[in-house]
């Protein structure tokens, strides 16, 4: 691959994953992938590196528990879009010190800056003479709901932020780890390696990572989704046969 | 030794699953129930999504029930005719139940209805069984003769049309009550992932007044048919049957069921019923508690399709 054409005096970043395909088989208990990268910086100004890993996007449905007559019930589900199935942001120091709020928001770096929203709940209207104001039916609780999506994902170890996750191991050479839990979704993961200088992004490298089921896991999953009815019949036959076999075995003994 | 389940998409401890299957299978063979009501809460606790737990254990119930029905059939303790009538109702119930469950998941109310069904059905049945069987045990201990079942059978039950003779059960009764019972078990099978034995066995004893010796075998026979249909429907409609999960469970389950069916001969019927009543009641209360305890986390992801 030919390196991107950059002026020789501009700082640049380069990175590679030690593994670009993660295979989910029966003994899969999560994976740790190491990312190595290098900073080419002719100047001496300090730099920051941020590594962002985003899993395939998933639509999630969230409910809130409410107390009705002493019993805790679920509210109606609210659909949130734009939540990646996995998100990890590692950096050389706290993101808030790497760049300002606006920059992070624009790049979507950091769990607070993910573009998660509930489009079905919102509509635009004209308020106080201002056109196209986005109003959510969730009202003032909207932020609580949005934060809950992130909190629940963090609890499942699917979202994480590590302000010390990127370490320089040698002059210009850095290293970061991607920790995939066992229930990480399958699909294509996009990795972005950002180089920041004085709070501004100066260079970026993008790498893809695929997580896919292999072997018997894949065969079973595809069978169950492509021929669901036949799969159901086979499951029942296996169950009935093993029940019969066990009773035969026990009669002899 | 952890194993990754392809449909549940979680990694669980395999020997633990086999042991769980064996324990539930033993209970199943001992009491003549599917035992699903014990397994669903444990699987969910282990991290399996509830929808996958309910659908996959229905398949496990097929295996352990098949294993014990053969054992009961050898002792001529299965009324196949009665079982077929109930199973016909069960198939209709399973269809309705799977569609109902799908709709509940869309509304985000699936776990509420599951908890409520556990609380109401298990709580009521468990309490009734416990009270009745403790009375019987006390009577026996005091040396009193067991209370004769009331000779007068419920009139409405025997005035219904479509009467049939069921020689093995020593009954001449309309097919409507057993078919309705089967349908109820079918609905519960889809919603709670249970065979419905915990409701069928008492209903067959107290409502239909079947001969006690054929009750357990017949209930297991109808459970096989109902749960087999539920498994196929759940796989076809919701893709929630994990064959690896049910395989591990039934590996232990079929063995446990055989041991359970053998052990059942060593206990007195009323003591067994008291024990079962107690277990059923405790599980019902435990599941129902979640409705009253303030949740630590007010938000939760709703399982099921996004739209």
In words, what does this structure look like?
- The complex is a heterodimer of chains A (253) and B (307).
- Chain A is flat.
- Chain A contains 5 helices and 15 strands.
- Chain A has 2 domains: 145 residues, Immunoglobulin-like, CATH 2.60.40; 40 residues.
- The model of chain A has no long low-confidence stretch (mean pLDDT 83).
- With 253 residues, chain A is α+β, with helices and mostly antiparallel strands.
- In chain A, strands 2-15-14-4-8-11 form a 6-stranded mixed beta sheet. A 4-stranded antiparallel beta sheet of chain A has the order 1-3-13-12, with no helix packed on it.
- Helices cover 25% and strands 43% of the residues of chain A.
- With 307 residues, chain B is mainly α.
- Chain B has one domain.
- Chain B is 70% helix and 6% strand.
- Chain B is built from 11 helices and 5 strands.
- A two-stranded antiparallel ribbon of chain B has the order 1-2. Chain B has a two-stranded antiparallel ribbon with strand order 3-4.
- In chain B, helix 1 packs across helix 10.
- The model of chain B has no long low-confidence stretch (mean pLDDT 80).
- The interface between A and B is large, with 60 and 62 residues.
- Strand 5 of chain A pairs antiparallel with strand 5 of chain B.
Break the fold down into its secondary structure elements and pairings.
The complex is a heterodimer of chains A (253) and B (307).
Chain A: E1 12-17, E2 21-24, E3 31-40, E4 48-54, E5 57-68, E6 71-74, E7 78-84, E8 87-91, H1 95-98, H2 101-107, E9 122-127, E10 130-136, H3 142-155, E11 159-162, E12 167-170, E13 173-180, E14 187-197, E15 200-213, H4 215-226, H5 228-252
Parallel strand pairs in A: 2-15, 8-11
Antiparallel strand pairs in A: 1-3, 3-13, 4-8, 4-14, 5-6, 5-7, 9-10, 12-13, 14-15
Chain B: E1 2-5, E2 10-13, H1 14-31, H2 36-45, H3 50-74, H4 80-107, H5 110-142, H6 155-158, E3 163-166, E4 171-174, H7 176-192, H8 197-207, H9 212-238, H10 243-263, H11 269-289, E5 299-301
Antiparallel strand pairs in B: 1-2, 3-4
Helix pairs in contact in B: 1-3, 1-10, 2-3, 3-9, 3-10, 4-7, 4-9, 5-11, 7-8, 7-9, 8-9
